[in-house]
Amino acid sequence: MSTTAQYTAAVRNLRLDQTWDQVNSGFLRIYSGTKPATADTALSGNTLLAELTFAATAFAAASSGTKTANAIGAAADAPATGTATFFRALKSDGTTVIAQGDVGVTGSGNFIELPTVTINQHDQVSITSFAVSEAA
Known about the structure:
This protein is mainly β. It has one domain. It has one helix and nine strands; from the N terminus they run H-E-E-E-E-E-E-E-E-E. The protein has one helix at 9-20, and strands spanning 27-32, 47-53, 66-68, 82-83, 86-90, 97-105, 112-114, 118-119, 131-133. Strands 2-1-5-6-7 form a five-stranded mixed β-sheet, with no helix packed on it. It has a two-stranded antiparallel sheet with strand order 3-9. The two termini are 18 Å apart. The mean pLDDT is 95.
């Protein structure tokens, strides 16, 4: 007996829109250190390496269970040096966390992939694409 439900694309799109539209004019923060157990868990000893800004309309409407970000403003001046390990997406209030995920190098299969996970203080950090999918 399976307890896993399968959802239509329309339901997946609705869930993605309701979740990710909350980051309009919000922030994408990249950290070093161990990723907290959940997005609700407080940071502990993590270093902020970059803060990027979502557009006023952060994402296009979801389609076929995928939601793709509009252009994300680059972090012009990284505040610290470290190895990027995870990110948090926050509302525009800068305190309400919506989601978190892993960061890795290009081709690693992580949620966010960067050419290098080594970020040096004063580096410019940018993300060229960001998409979220929900399986059927």
